[in-house]
Amino acid sequence: MRDPNHSVGTPTTTSKGRTVSAPRRVARRRTTRLAGILAVATALVVSTVACGQEGGGKDEQARELLPPSEVDTSNGLVIDGELVADKELWEAAQGQVVKLYSGTGKEAEDLTAARFKQETGLDIELTRLPTNKLAERVLSEQGAGKLGADIARVTDPRVAREFSEQGVFVPYTTPFDRLLREQNTGVRDTYLNCYYFVNAMGYNDAIIEEDQPTQWEDLVDPKYAGKLGVVAVTTGGTLNALAHFQISTLGREFLEQQGRQNPRIFDSTSTEVDALARGEISVASLSFNNAFAAELAGAPLELVIPDKGVSASENLMGMTANGLQNPAAQVFMNWTMSKSGQSFAAAQGFVPARTDMEPVKAGGKYQLPQADSPQFHLFSEEDYEKYAARDEEWWKQAFDYMG
Asked: Rounded to whole angstroms, how far apart are CA atoms 256 and 254?
């Protein structure tokens, strides 16, 4: 599913003549049957994007993903037996709107807003930009004394740390703080990890009908030469996590083997998923949540969680000074870390930060490894500082990439 805020790749040629990042190009030769499949897949993706941009159908989609939790507002806000907001906070939040700035995908945030309103009756006003662009806006607004956000979510630990240093993020403690710290979920002084992004594998099941890929090693099978899709490591933190996972689990040579597959290299996860849905590539390493959203929309995709596990990185969230003055923002922060909020994140294809819950399948179909599983490979903030530059250089060498 294409996020309208993602950039669309343009053709780039490497030093060896390989063409990359041309997600709109369609192969010249197709069989009649395959052309029909691709036309249907493209229509599904486009129609879903239009729906997502208008916000239509999100209430129903959220309910289909996971039924709303049991809510009791007789003495504050209690959801599934957990106190999310005491009576004073709950009453003060009525009629208020949460202003959320987010680097997370728009589709995911629209669904989250729909679920939050179902369980609280409160609205979210979303500003969605890629994390690097979001950082520019937030710091500019902060410097001018006109920050519009109550809460911000970013995908890069360096940005979260800068927000903290520049006073964008201020201390706020949810009712679950002690539990979150005991579980080592990633609580810092002024921000926390609300859930994890995951990278796994997927394929177009209208093209690959037999002998489907099941393991990471299948990506380097010669039969997928010219049919493999990858996203450039320079795209962001989630791709740094994937590169490090592949290097540490499968070896640096695994990157080199992928590079010899003449892969299509994309500059965003959304354009890669679109190309996979259209059949321009047939197999890919990919952002699980993005691909899962496209599959839900009807794209001919099947996701794979290999035995050797998945890569993971943090989604970091913090409260601003504005948020401290907005009771609805405090309710949202608390709700996000409640079992209900965490379960809904899992239903969308993320991995919850909390580990004291029953596992929730994405869409009732896929069970991702939980944060305390040996199959869950987290690229921590410390790992980022230690390995990101080295891994990026190795990745560029393996894929002969100059972007």
From this structure: 5
**pLDDT confidence band for 39 (50 / 70 / 90):** very low
Residue 120: name the closest of 353, 327, 352, 362 by CA.
Answer: 327
Is residue 192 in a domain? yes
Torsion, Cα 40 46 51 53, to 10 degrees, reads 170
Claim to verify: residue 304 and residue 317 sit in the same structural domain: no
Q: d(Cα 137, Cα 186) in Å, to the nearest integer?
A: 25
pLDDT digits (tens, 9 = 90+) for 63-118: 999 999 999 999 999 999 999 999 999 999 999 999 999 999 888 999 999 999 99
Tell me the average pLDDT across 346-369: 96
Are 269 and 385 part of one and the same domain?
yes
**pTM of the entire predicted model:** 0.84
CATH (domain of 133):
3.40.190.10
235 & 326 share domain: no
Count Cα neighbours of 308 within 13 Å in the Cβ-side half-sphere.
16
Q: How far is CA 72 from the centre of its chain?
A: 31
* Range(s) of the domain holding residue 44: 33-52+198-311+380-399
